[in-house]
Each structure stands twice: as C-alpha cells, then as structure tokens.
Design goal:
Distance between the termini of chain A: 54 Å
Largest sheet of chain A: none
Shape of chain B: globular
Radius of gyration of chain B: 23 Å
GO molecular function (chain A): NADH dehydrogenase (ubiquinone) activity; quinone binding
Number of helices of chain A: 4
Protein name (chain A): NADH-quinone oxidoreductase subunit
Distance between the termini of chain B: 64 Å
Oligomer: heterotrimer
EC number (chain A): 7.1.1.-
Order of helices and strands of chain B: HEHEHEHHHHHHEEEEEEHHHHHHHHEEHH
Shape of chain A: flat
Strand content of chain A: under 5%
CATH topology of one domain in chain B: Cytochrome-c3 Hydrogenase, chain B
CATH superfamily of one domain in chain B: Cytochrome-c3 Hydrogenase, chain B
Membrane topology (chain A): Multi-pass membrane protein
Chains: A mainly alpha, B alpha+beta, C mainly alpha
Helix content of chain A: 55-70%
CATH architecture of one domain in chain B: Orthogonal Bundle
Number of strands of chain B: 11
Subcellular location (chain A): Cell membrane; Membrane
Number of helices of chain B: 19
Radius of gyration of chain A: 25 Å
Largest interface: A-C, 64 and 78 residues
Number of domains of chain A: 1
Chain lengths: 119, 469, 310
Amino acid sequence: MARVSVWLPVLVLLGLTVAAVAGLYGLSALLTQRAAVCAPMPFAGGLTPREHAFSRFHVRWYPVTMIFLAFDMEMLFMYPWVRVVRQMGPPAVIEMFLFLGILFAAVAYAWREGALRWT
Amino acid sequence: MDLIGVLRRVVARRPPVLLVAMPGATRERLAVEAELTRRGWPSAASPAAAAGLVVAGLPGGERPRWLEGLWHGMPRPKAHVAVDHAGDASHALGVLSGLLATGREGEAPWAVSTGSPREARGAGRQDRGGGQGAHRRQETGGRDERGGRGERGGREGHGSTNGRDGRSEWGGRGSHSGHHGRDGRDGLDSAHGRDGHGGHGEAGGQGGHREGVTAGLPMAGRADDRDGLRLDRLHLPLGPALADWPAGLVLDVALQGDVLQSAEEHPGEAAPAGRYPYWSEPWLRAAGGEAVTRGAAERRRCASHLDSVGRFLAVSGWPRPAARARGLRDRLLHGAAAGDVAPEVLRLTRGVARSRTLRWLTRGLGELPAGRAGELGVTGPALTAGGDVHARLCVWLREIECSVHRMDDARAVADAGGPRGRLDGGLPPSRALLDALLPLLPGAEFACARLVLASFDPDPDEFAGAGHA
Amino acid sequence: MPEAAPLWAALVLPAALCLGAVAAAGFDAVVGGGAGRSGSGVLGTASAPLREGLRLLAQQRRTTPSADVALGRVGLGLVPVAAVLAAAVVPWGFVSVTDPAVGIVWFNAMEVLAWAAVWLAGWGPNSVLSLIGGYRFLAQGLAYELPHMFALTTAGLGAESLRVSDVVGAQQGLWFAVWMPAAFAVYLLSAAAMSYWGPFGYPLGGDAAGGAVAEYSGVDRLLLLGGRWLLLVATAAFSVPLFLGGGQGPLLPGWAWTLLKTAAVLAVLIAARRMLPVLRADRYMEFAWMVLVPLTLLQALFVAVVVLNR
C-alpha cells in the first residue's frame, strides 16, 4: 500500500503533464485556425542545404561518452553506499575513495592522452 | 471577442525581427539595428524565431532569391519590409508593426520588376550554388509557371521541396493540382522520389558520393577526417543570413559533425559599385582628395571597432556587453561628443579586456602569427595582434580607447590606415583578412570557427575593390 | 516529520511551477534592462515572456522535409515532463507531493531526461544547425552530469539518507550549504547547465542560429523555451531542501521559507548569468573533468569523514 501511495501522485503528475502538453497543441491549433504547417527547407544561414543533415557525428563524442559511462556506472554504487557509511565504519569510506581514486587516475590518464580535448 | 486580433496586436507591439543586410548596406543595417534597440524589439537568429523580416539593402529591387526562401521559412503571422535608405528605418519598422497588427504580410515579392537579363544572371549564380535557386520562377511576381518545372528540376537537384513551399506561400494557396507528384508534398517520400531524383543529384555538382537520395536531397557522404577516420561529411553553404555574420558573405564548408573540414568562399553577391564601403569611407574620401578631418576618421574607426567587438561578443554568447558596444557605436555615429561617450567606452573596453572567462574561452583559437599575417598582406589590427582570437579582440579594444580620445582632431587625414588595414595597398584589407582566416577554419569546431571569423570581421563591402585608393 | 500531501497537491504543483517560471522569466526580462524602453514600464517588461508565450501559441508551426517528427516531438514533450516529474519530490515547506525513499535518485533520473529531450529535439528537424545544437547538449551533459551527481550524493551522504525529507531534517541548525560549499556551488552550476540556460545556453547558441531550437516555431518552440524555465525553477527549488535547510526558518511558515529561498537562488542565478559569456563545451569539458570532479570528490570525502565521526 505504501508503495502505491508514494508513486501514485507521480503517475497523476505524468498524466497531467502529458495532458497539458496535448492541450497546448490543441489550443495552438485553435488559435492558428488550423493553418497549414509552414514547411520550408531547413535554415542553414540563408541558402538551401545540399544534403540531409542526419549523419553520424564526429568521433570525439565517443571516447568521452565511454569514460563518462564507466565513471557513471560506478558512481551509482555511491547511492546505496550513502545509507550505510556509518554502519560500515571507516572501511566503507576507505574502500569507496580508493575505488574513486583509481577511477579518477584513469580519467587523468585519458585526459593526458587528449580524450577530453574537444577541438 | 476577436481573440485572434488581440493576439495579432500583441505580436505587433514587439515582433522579433530577422534582419538581413545586403552587401553594401552597412549604413542601412546600422540604422535598423539602432531603431530595433530604441524600440526594444528582440532580434531573431533564424526564420523560425522571427515574426518580421527586415531587409537592409540597396534600392532598385535587386534582391536575391534566397530571401524568398527565408520568407517561406517564417511562420505566420509574419510581415516583411525593406529598408533602402538609412533614414527610412524608423518608418519601415512602423510599417512592419502595422502590417503585423492588421494581418497583411507586406508588399508582394521583392523581385517584382525583372527583365530577362537578371533571369540569366541569376541562373548562372544558382548553378554554382548547387541549387538554392528553386525560387527562381517566383521572379515574375509570384505567379509561377509550373510548366517549366520539369526540365528545371533536373538541374536543381531538389526543386521539388522548394516548389512545394513556393506554392503555398507565393503562388496562392491550394493551386497545386495537376502536377506530377514530384512537385508536390506527396512526391517527397514516394518511391519515385528516389529514382526520380537520383539522377538529378548527380547533375547538381556534389561530386563523389551518391549513396542515397531521399526527398530530392542526397544523404551525407563520407570522407577522411583529420585523424584519418572515415566519417560522415556534410556540405553546407554558411551565410549570408546568419545573425552577426558579415553581410553577403557565403562560405562553402564541409562539416564532420560540428567540425569544419574545409571552408571556401562561395561567390556571392558583391556590393554594388559606386558607393564607398561605409567603414573605410573617410580614408577613401581623403585619398580621393576630399577634406576629411582626422577626428571624423577616428570616430568612424572607433565605431567600426565597436561594431566588430559587439558582433564578436554576440557570437561568443555575451549579449549584455554586446548590446552596450552597439549602443555606444550608435551614439558615436549620431555625433555624440567624445567627452560624453569616453567614460562609458572605457568602462566597456576594460570590462571586456579584464574578463578572465572570455580569455579562457578564446585563448589559443585561430592563431595567426604576425609573420604569416604579413606574408598574406594583412595589415591593421590583425597584423598588430599577431596572435589568437583574444589577441585580436584586445587590439580592437586598445584602438577603441585610443580613437575615442582623438575624435576632436581637426587636422586632415594623412594616412590610409582604415579600421581593417591599409587602404592603399593592392588588396582591399578585408580581402586579405578573408584569405588569412579561411586556412584557420579547417579543424575548428563550429562555434570556434564562428569566433575566428568574428575576430577578423572582414567587411564584404570592401571586396568590390573599392579599397584601391 | 514527513507529511504526505493530499493527492490534489499533484494538481497544484504543475501550476505552481509554471507560475514560478513566468515570474522568473519576467524578473530576468526586467534585470535584462528592457524596462523603461519605449514607454513600457516595469510591469510591461515583466510580462514580456508571457506575451511571447501567447505569441508562440498563436504561431504557425513548421516542419522541414524528411524531418523525424516523432522523435522531435517526443523530445519537445519530454522537457516539461522532466521538469514537472523532477519537481514532484521537492518539499514545499515540509510537505511534498511524494516522498519516496530514493527521492534524490528520482530527481537525478528525471532531470537526466532533459538530456535526451534536447538531443531528440535537435535531431528531429533534419537541419544541420539544430543537430549541432542537440549534440552540443550531449557534450554539455557529459561535462556537467558527473560533478552534479557527486553534489547530490554529498547531500545524501550528509543526511545518510536518500529521502528528501530526511535531508531536510538533517539540516536543523546547520545548512548543508555552509559545510558543503563546493557541492552547493557545483549544484548551482549544473542547475543552469541542465536547463541549457544563461552561460550554459550553448546548445541553443545564437552562433548556430538558435541551435536545437533553430527550426521550431509555434507551440514546439514554446515547449522547448518555456520548458527550460520550468527546469530551472525545478532545479533551483530542489537546491533548497538539499543545501538550504528546506522550509526551516524562524517566524514564517515552512512553505514561505521554501518560496523565499527558491526565489533567492533564482535571483542569484539570473543576476550571475549576465556576467559570463557562453561556456563552450570544448572548454567546459576539460574544466568539469579535471577541476570539478576532483573538487566534488574531495568534498564528498570531507563529508564522509565528518559523518564517521558523529
């Protein structure tokens, strides 16, 4: 029961917000008197683009994303850890920060190798 | 209750304006910018954001076709006006507001009066542009002859998509019946869009990659990037209607993601002859034998640099000092006394020069050593700076501080050192600047490339060769 | 101390958030120096965002050829949804719409939705400039997200709980902002960053003609631009229970203190925004990883040691 009462308001909120967004679209349709949607070529500074824009993006996103994911996944452990620090005592803190320190050493290495260099 | 009418008047009070300056129309652009500031109207960076399109340009109805593309891209309610003389700016914006309030959109297409010579010239330009000109048929006052579209589509690669817009906006609504699917919206995604356009793209001069054509446009091709990886590559004509961009300049760039692979100047419209470029006018007049005081020239230099600084700050995303720089520029050009403006100018220049964040953000971008600049024929601030984007900004700031104290000098102008460089050399200074900056762009990220360009701020008005004194 | 709010509070929250967004945007317009120009008073300037919203509602919408309409639309809709759902765990005074045991994680998860939202919105229109804008937000997210998560964790660590009401309760006497200043500062930075606003407006940069929003008009544009204010208000409001003692304070009732503190945080952000140019991700990336991450780690270590010794 407790679970329901905690997440029920969230469901209500979700429904409400989605309905509000839909309502905005409806209101807009009314106010624009359902005018046809304006359908130009994409704006690229005035002249018409010569190719579709959908494309695979530059590679430098991927190394950073990998580093981020590695760090991010590990740091999720910190959420449960937060609740047990005092029960577990100093070993919990030492282990966690050793772990983070190793991770950060890896980041520092990646940085030195230029993985965070953007241009 | 007339709710729509009320909303229309709300829009008309302060419409966001997309300001497009034609080459050679610096004076008109400045007048419109000053008027926009005075009225507190926001400026729009793209057609989607705009309710009003203001074209600062030269009289005579000579307006290029891509303007019509911009106009199509603007959502209703919208209106457009042209400002052909600096003095008309206030009136024109009043008209714009009135048009928005009443729901009319402005006089019919710009290019109303046209003869065949222009048609021919336009066609030549479009072929180079790879097909931005599908609006050509609107030339004749919006009543497009659709009959000719068949063969034309072949040359223009993606005439179909533009044809659709053209119809809905200019050619009268709902008149699209009776034409092959390719011309219409349905044609975009239909099966024969693919085979129907595959061949056209070939003729469109893209060269190299023909992997797939959808809706009349090819997909991105691939090419080696700077690290030797094979990545998607897009070709894009940048300009001329980007905000804070040199009027009339078009750069053909190849982008991989947001990194520029190459950048070349795209032959665009030149500033009309017979008019001095606004920013170097005093020096050119003096060289032509007219009496110009140094004070007047320094005032122009100061305003020119403030314009460049304002543009640079706007590109770097710092709207407040950008607006202050432009406000000071307008006051200088309206003849404000040096003593009144100087303290504020100094506060601005010192504030910008002191900003550590700005230095951190711009350090190391677009490095142009003085030696290299000299070889390329660069004179003026970019040569003095002999360094990166931030160094060039600082030279502008220093020259502003010097100029603002020399605005009462009544002696005659003796040299030819305009705001962008020496005007007595063989090459117009802005031409040298563009030649110097283009090689700096490949490898730069989009935002950095914009900063590099803004830090040189070449003035296409000078390209016409009026620089020869 | 935690009180369960009646279900109707869920109806009030979105409205309150919208009101806050309109007020914050109006304040921003006034601070921006729009007042006094061409005869419009402070009130006229403060209502400018509202008029702009109305204008967008009545404006025609746009689509570009071969646009990915579905993804773009999902992205646009996600912005307000993320803001409202994140705000669900913000206590007003001592009452919140919902107070799950993992409130901090919930907030984190919801605001990360904005990350997807802006990228999708930038991808949608098949336009180079908006695609650049979308990717810029990815880059920005890669930079701000990790320090932000450490800041959140640090507050949770101080309270030894992930329940927001426990975090508020742990600040009786001493606000976390006082003894976790680095975490608080980093939180404020990322609050601006995740609402792609002010110096973090890089994804919507004017140099790319508006970036992710370059091709949107009408109600689409309203969602993306209005949604950023919702996000900003939601994140600013969440800094109050995390670092500023929630509804605690003398004399006034709890909800009033929450309101006051939220307004103060927003005012600081709005005032500070004008002092900086846009922070490009290429520079901020290095700064975030090499300065902010170690800084927040040290902050967390400090807090962990304090927690062990109490």
